Records
---
Amino acid sequence: MLLRKSKLLIASLLILSLCFPAGSEAAAAVPRAVSVSGGSAHGIAAWSDGTVTGWGDNKFGQVGDGTSINQYIPRQVEGLSGIVQVAAAGRVSFALSRDGEVWGWGLDYSSYIENDPLLRYQKRGGPVKLEGLREVSSITANGSLGIAVKKDRTATLWYPSYDQPGVLPVQIHYLELKAVTGIRSALINGNDALFLTEEGSVKQMSIVNTVYNRIRLESDPVSVATIASSSITGMAASQGELFLLRSDGQVLRWNRGLKAPSAVAGLNNVYKLDTGFYRLFALKRNGTLWQWNYNSGVLAKPYQIKKGNQISNIWGSSGTFGFAQHKDGTLLGWGDRFDTGLATGRGTVTKDQAGYILTPVRQPLMFFVNGEPFSFYGTPSIKDDKLYVPPTSVFKALGVQVSYGTFKADPKYGNDPFTGWSFVYGNNIVQVKVSDPLELYINGKKSDREFTMNRLPDSAQFPLEAICDLLGIGLQWNKSTGEVRLEN
């Protein structure tokens, strides 16, 4: 009997080992992107653990880090949990929780916070709950307004009111769009709301009263047109153009100048659609990623994105970029704005006749100073696989005095006074002369050691590893987890 039980135990362990191969626990612990969206120049991602990260242009707080500082590395959005979908548009971001609640931040939604001791003029409020939305299953946005598809397959439009100028967040109005039911998904395209129904038809409804140039009221007359009557499984829209995905994988194009949707040559066998600014993104069933700059005479035909293979999902933006997920879970991006704050691994865009090259989106960085978690308002950056930080970041916590001004060089080395940055730690002084090229001085003596800064349009960025090495501060950067540990 004991032998039989042992054999059963061994067999059970063998089955478990086949179901959960070595390393699967670690792999399962790494969150995957479940929803990604881009505004004009920022990105938002929801992850399988329910968290949200944001990065990029942040003038109105649309990244969600509580500042109006551009963030070149993704930052976690505090105050959100259980998020299953995000939607970004222009300079605004939205998130939907598994409980059916919706949150918004950025233009019109993030309040100004004055007299912050560390960030007097650039502190912004976090996500605000849209109290008029409940039991929501999906969201879509166009600028500061959006449509929520409810779990009962009806839709509600939300939009900001400017009755009290200068007051943030603005008051949000809600309008039930009762003329269409059985809704699977929705889009906003110009003055129209577009609905994909459970039957596979596409309905069009105006959400603007063009006579009074305002969002229509519930009492205004409404008409619904049918653009496609059946067999539609997906849709995407941008700048007045509507693209439909037919059940056989063919992409159709429609606008007000066309009587009926027409097939797009070269875009068949497609699995999913999304759009950017005058761009159509398509994921084919064979895992290849395609783009069509349909408003361009140069790239008038769909083309495959370089290295756009083995792709499992795609997402668009209201800018000139998109996102894709590799089948291994890696989140990728491509487009025109990735060199100005959309946190890919590259400092510059790479493109050729076949278009843009997919590049991994950076994961958030987590800083620890002497074993304690540490955060700062400014943005870090990564260039050529080197980590850079602004002067107001980890240095003060480490006891490093940072200043900018004119410094007297050590006369025994025959150096003239110069303008630049100074880092003082104990008996060590590191100075950087602002010149082209940069000049490095160690304890007053000019050094031939190479020293580079990452020049960003809104932040001076210093090489953290190099400065810590020069000052004798311990640093460990785990590039696989994003942990940066500093010890002194």
---
Amino acid sequence: MGGARRFIGVAERRARLALRQRLAGAARARTPEEVAGSLVALHGTDPATVYLAVGARLADPGHTVAETGRALYEDRSLVRMHGMRHTVFVFPTALTAVVHASTGLAVAARERAALLKDMATAGAPDAAWLKEVEESALAALARRGQATAAELAQDEPRLREQFVYAAGKRYEGVHTVSTRLLRVLGVEGKVVRGRPLGSWTSSQFRWAVAPEHPELDTAQAQAELLRRWLAACGPATEDDLKWWTGWRVTEVRGALAAIGAEPVSLDEGTGYVTEGDAGPPAAFDEPWAALLPGLDPTAMGWQQRDWYLAPELRPHMFDRSGNVGPTVWWNGRVVGGWAQRPGGEIVWRVLDEAGLGRDAHAAIEREAERLTGWLGTTKVTPRFRTPLEKELAAG
């Protein structure tokens, strides 16, 4: 490609983020489906994250819980399933075939091989036995529509059988066939998470048969997933793309070439955007604030985060495993964090005051009130707690 690469600076990256991540007021969405489509994937490891991430981006968040539940469990226009980096996400249902072929197949092969190896080491039944149990369990799930592992075991008692894992090692444990098998079936794209047991904040789920989808070529699926993600999150570096997808660098480069991605210059070095997307975003001058939940897809979207998150804030905002906690944003950068106290009060603290004034603090407070308004009496505690969140929650 001839000519000098266009430089995209921090200010422009933050403007893109505001519009494409549905965070600026004028860019907010009408439905959970619009939010998920714009972001490609919503982190689903913590069930509350899905609802909080959607609510932060809706023009009218008053019906966040009802509308997100509708999309997930009635219309099935969104689906919770394993995806990139062996992590649970919520995707638009139309994207499930792409996710499965681009990221799920390789993980699924490793997971099934590991299960069979662990069972063989423990002297448990062989692959033929496991296949029988699997087919019986899937048939029972299809009859029931949705079910917990315990409910499926009523129909297929062999799911209750146990085997010793890592015998003789300090992390030795006992695994139940149902736990490991359902996990394998999840990454294989045969089952997905259904309705939770309890409220929308519950981490205990029923299972459901996965929606049917065509089998796609892996390379084509990788190209499509990368194209969608770059359209939402570009520019991004190779390191960002490798981290987000969990692919090998050769796969990332192959997908970049397949979609004709355009290289641009960033402070970190070479970045990439989709073909024809190297120009500046639509002009807007609306200042904006946002309170995003732990594991929000924007806060977790890139491996190289200095352009929106100052390094000195990281010890306060992340747990030891690299999971981000609830964040406070002002005009495209993380400036602090928030938490909910036992009585339901939303509290927040700014850690980076650079460029913030009275208007910024007022805007953040309005977002806190907006969040309080639709949460009502519901208490939400992040699954992965961070130093700042724990401090604020304790009061």
---
Amino acid sequence: MNQKNGWIMAAILLTLSMTAGCSSSQAAVEKGTGGKGAEGTNKENSGPPAVSTEPVTLNILASAYQVDFETMLIDPVKKKYPNITLNVMATGTGKNIQDLVAAGNTPDLFAGYTGMMPALKQLDVLDNLEPLVKKFRVDLDRYEPAVIDAIKVSGNNNELSGLPFNLQLNALYYNKDIFDRFGVPYPKDGMTWDDAIELARKLTRTEGGVAYRGLDPESFTRIFYPRSVNIVDPKTNKAAVNNEQWKTVFDLGKRILSIPGNERKESSPINEFRKSKTLAMLPSYNFFSDMKEASESGLNWDVAQYPSYKDRPNIYGMVDPWIMFVAKTSKHKDAAMQVLEVLTSNEVMLQMAKNTAKLPPLKNPEMKKALGENMPFLKGKSIVSVFKSRPAPNPSFTKYDTEAQKWLEASFWDYIRDKKDINTALRDAEEQINQIIREY
């Protein structure tokens, strides 16, 4: 094709894409989905610029937990952009992003979360997507503002380095049969941790040779995320754990796990809830999609609003999105953005919500209403309760946080198990973290 014909073809393609964009947008308005809604105009249908239609293969790194490949990526991308082939590189031992970068095999696209971003910055794989966002007319107003802010605060120079496709949530799962057995009312929405602990005291007992536990915090991270606390001060690069905020976190863990008989007995509280069926309440992350087997095995369960600190009512976790990044080294960034366009489209997000019960990071209220709609074992569950809380703002992460958290958590368990008092535990953790920073 000569240059003149090439320009003519590009103009035709641009006209067709703009026409198709206007048609799909109008259809969306007529159907009452997408288009103009409570959030304003949905610009995702305004049509990206014409780009190459030459065949291209993109390597993408993610796990099946993060992405339902067939319904969220492979099929919809193939349908809309038949020239793009996705080569899925499943995560696993020796196959994480660090390993692939070290081997000179960096994928074009890879999934991660905000807590990983300091490490990704060290690998120098994050790119500034804002020029591509502008080029492809990506409507960032579709997203929950806190999600975009969380990605920027964790990125390079407050830049947007990826687009979110899944937002974590927290819920209080509970075993209705244990509550019924001991005549204790079910958890209510709006409970504080103090309220949950009082319920736990009534439910922690042994009957018929079976030891029942009332409550487990599930994870150390789960109870400190709502406080938006730093482990390392990003301004001074020094430990920031020997203070009242962290005492509050350590104290909460102690009050839960020191209830007589409520000491942790299994390594996995999630298994204790789902399989052993001996844990009455489990405040945890979104594992709705994994409750099918437990439901079929007879677990009589429901969910309530996540408990909150008294001074931080209706707050859970932190803004914790899964993000798809375009690697800085990718030679096919336009095609990668087309994949992101499909992945984050209303159509794909809605199917994700309905079929996997994962929460889209969009303002659109229909996404929350649709959560788990096509999953029969979730029918009748009080999922609406979860949305009475909102996530806490993210702190600024540092490159030291992952290693520092290991030492802080070790001190937490030393305190829980009465090996150290709280002041000693936090002081020792601070000293150890500062030593790690000096040797980094």
---
Amino acid sequence: MTDIKDICKKAFEEKFNCAPEYYSYAPGRVNIIGEHTDYNGGFVLPCAIRYGTVMFAKQNGTDKIRVLALDMNNDYDEFAIAPVIEKHDTKLWSNYLRGVTYQLAAKHEGKLKGLDIVIKGDVPAGAGLSSSASLEVCFGNLLNNVFSLNESLMNIALIGQSAEAYIGMKCGIMDQAISANGVCDHAVRIDCKSYDLTKVSVPSDLVILIINSNIKHQLVGSEYNDRRESCEKAAKILGVEYLRDATMPMLLAAKDKMDDVTFRRARHVITEDERVLEASKAFEAGDLANLSKLMYQSHESMRDDFEITVKQTDALVEIVKTALGPGKEAVRQTGGGFGGCVVAVVKPEDVQSVKNAINAQYKAVSGIDATIFETKACDGATFKKL
């Protein structure tokens, strides 16, 4: 991260001909288990990772946010702070910032002032590691601290979630919540109904591997919203507010009242919530065998019931599963789906064999190489006045 900090700070000084006053950072995340359960009021078990978004900023004495995005080919945008801020026609990255700004401006009338900002990140875009949530939380926490808005980190996360809805993505709270509230050396189990956070220690003898299929997913306007609608339909049939409140006996009793697709979507969510709770116990106990069983079951459920995997991520999971062997195959697709990354939890001595297997086999399936990252569980959002 030092590299992106140095690059970002230097770019700020060159763009705005002055030194920055503020520094903000928020990480991306990887979800160990609990996919598409967050917007169903359920449980998820993510951790913050060592890749994220950096911002350097200075007040500019105007009513405008002026921002340079280094990772968007040095794209630049500016917009006035107002209770209503229109979306930009072509700059998707700026719309995340616009969405956060208009909500905070409406809630804290007159408190926000103009800022000059330079942004740089190292979360791979389109990899399912929450580059957008990292951006939203980094920016929201910047505004929160610079202008003394006194919002909690969870409120900043909720504002980021609403910014996603502003651009057309009805996502759950997981990505923003863990970016804001990550804890070093811990996954965090998030109750997405109550917003309770429970630290789950990651055993020191386990490594988290993130394998990017390099099949980019784009969830805005995609099948993601269709999956959410199916879940809402199932919840209505079952007479519950969220699928988190349903049980498998309830679902089986109502099977003849719903089509097969709706039934399978609901089955994934209900069983996935159970897996998250069991996986939390397995992590705390250092029980890799049980964690392996639960993570692979999660992948099968995403593949067969929720239908959000693709052949490349399925292939990666099978390559890693075979390389690790029985009782150690803690691997699954992670993220919203339709591409992106696979996550594996492995012993340090197995890391190289997994890398060797991927490098030897994946390109034959996909025509491209995978990118492999090692990470530990990291802290969430930070802010500093320089």
